[in-house]
Amino acid sequence: MKSQYLNFLMVTICLVITPETVHAEDLLVFMYGSGSVERYDADGKHLGTFFSGLLHGWEGQRMDRRRIVYNCVDGSRGIVYNCDMTITQSNKRQTELANTHSRLTLADNVVERIRNEIISGVLSPGTMLAEIPTAQRLEVSRVPVREAFRELEHDGLLVFEANGRCRVRTLTARDFDEIYNVRLMLETESFRLAALNHSEPDLKALRNNIRQLERVRSLNRMTLLDIEFHDQIMEMGRQSRLIHLWGVMRSQIQLFTAILQREISAIKNIRDISIEAHEKCLRGIESRDPNLAKQCAIDHLEPWSGWLKSTRLEGGEA
Fold first, then answer.
1. List of residues 6+ apart from 182 with CB closer than 8 A
2. Residue range 145-185, pLDDT digits in tens
3. What is the pLDDT of residue 289?
4. Residue of 180, 171, 274 whose CA lies nearest to 219
5. In this structure, are residues 314 and 220 in contact, taking their beta carbons and an 8 Å threshold?
6. Paired sense of beta strands 37-40 and 27-31, if any
7. Which residues are registered as beta bridge partners of 46?
8. Alpha-carbon torsion 59, 63, 64, 67, what sign?
9. Residue ranges of the domains in the chain?
10. Which of 25, 70, 148, 205 qualifies as a FRET site for 89, CA 20 to 30 Å off?
11. Can you tell me the distance from the alpha carbon of 275 to that of 187, in angstroms, rounded to the nearest whole number?
12. 236-285 per-position pLDDT tens digit
């Protein structure tokens, strides 16, 4: 814990003495070994070196590496801080829920970079992916790309055709309907259990998530905060098998959410809608009434069903 606070102190000093303007959503990454502090925006774009060689050779506490790779799309490694000076814990839950390896590998790096591109829409549905061009673009060998393709196929984000070609999955109307129904089953139970089993730190984490959502400027960042809110509720239920099932579906649920949020944001203020809905969910869980919490989950997810029915023909393409 001591090293964590020292790292936090170093980054805090950077924020105090820097002449640059930073946003609350920006990330500062205290780099392992070099001691430099790099700055990224909420979508993982590198904005430059904040400070160079602040404390060369400092290792610090190697916390939550997958979060780092998720945000630092160039594959850099370090300890991540929000510029509002709160230590970022995001995606730690994803690592636990998906039961991924604790040791960061090159394949992990490639998986998260491609996953982020799919979720954010950089790689649009139907985009064909080949090992060699992808390896060249990411500046890695073909082996981690091949491993990443297989893992993302398992997660439901990529599809291999009969001829061996790989493409980004295009969700059909039936896919959206199935994902919605599975999510509804999982989340009504998780909300019910969260009402029964939550602790005060659990509620504090949900409140903090909502506060971050209130400040968000990026739709991609909003989508990430949205899925993390539901990750937290899933954990609050304290049911390992339910958490495992959520981990199996998580990537597809996140893709589902990202696509629909991009569509709805064109005509509505999706951030304000999400904030209001999440605050209602929080109150339902905080009540410790399992039936009320379950109904909050239904009320929260039902608008997705209405949107799907109004925009997609049953069984047709998305």
1. 249
2. 999 999 999 999 999 999 989 999 999 999 999 999 999 99
3. 98
4. 274
5. no
6. antiparallel
7. 40
8. negative
9. 2-88, 95-168, 173-311
10. 148
11. 18
12. 999 999 999 999 999 999 999 999 999 998 888 999 999 999 999 999 99
CATH topology of domain 173-311: Four Helix Bundle (Hemerythrin (Met), subunit A) (1.20.120)
Q: What is the pLDDT of residue 217?
A: 86
Residue that wins the pLDDT comparison between 54 and 168: 168
Helix H or strand E segment including 80:
strand 78-82
Scanning the structure block, which residue is given the tokens 């105090």? 16
To the nearest 10 degrees (0 to 180), the angle between helices 173-197 and 219-236 is 50
Find out whether 186 and 242 touch, Cβ atoms under 8 Å. Answer: yes
CATH number of 95-168: 1.10.10.10
Are 77 and 63 in contact, with CB atoms under 8 Å apart?
no
Question: In this predicted structure, what is the pLDDT of residue 11?
Answer: 53
Q: Going by C-beta distance under 8 Å and a sequence separation of 6 or more, which residues neighbour residue 17?
A: none
DSSP 171: P
CA distances from 9 to 29, 55, 145, 285 (A): 13, 12, 37, 35
Mean pLDDT over all residues of the chain?
A: 77
Range with the lowest mean pLDDT among 89-93, 203-207, 216-220?
89-93
Mean pLDDT of 106-120: 88
Q: For 261-292, b where at least 16 C-beta lie within 10 A, e where not — what string?
A: beebeeeeebbeebbebbeebbebbbeeebeb
| Token pair in block for residue 236 | 């609050």
Residue position matching structure tokens 């649920």: 253
User: Is 249 within 8 Å of 187 (Cβ atoms)?
Assistant: no
* Ramachandran assignment for 145, one of left (phi > 0), alpha (psi -120 to 50 degrees), beta (any other): alpha
Helix (H, G, I), strand (E, B) or coil at 219: helix
Tokens representing residue 309 in the block: 């029915």
For residue 255, give the nearest of 212, 210, 192, 318 by alpha carbon.
318
Which residue shows structure tokens 């590998």?
105
